[in-house]
Request: fold
Amino acid sequence: MYGYLPSEVLRLIADRLGVALSKVYGVATFYSQFHLTPRGRHIIQQCDGTACHVRGAGRIIEAVERELGIKAGETTPDLKCTYEVVYCIGSCALAPMAIVDDQVARGLTPEKMLNLIENLD
Reply:
């Protein structure tokens, strides 16, 4: 429904379970599947593991941050894109790579990645 856990939901969970809010917050921040802020309609995960890094992921990250006007780990103000840097997708032979809305993009360059982003609806 929300796609993230707003503070009022964390409080409600704590109340319903009869546990301290800090315990609920601890669980929510421990697992990467939970988010405390709204996420974009499009999730972009850029790999910066060793193979991707060596093959130019840093230049891709800089280009995307510049294009979207946000830093990795943030969401655009219009909630269109959330941009994340991850540290191994497990397909080093395809480096540099990313996952855009659950679709693998491989052999990326800054230009190819920006083209993918421009074509998001």
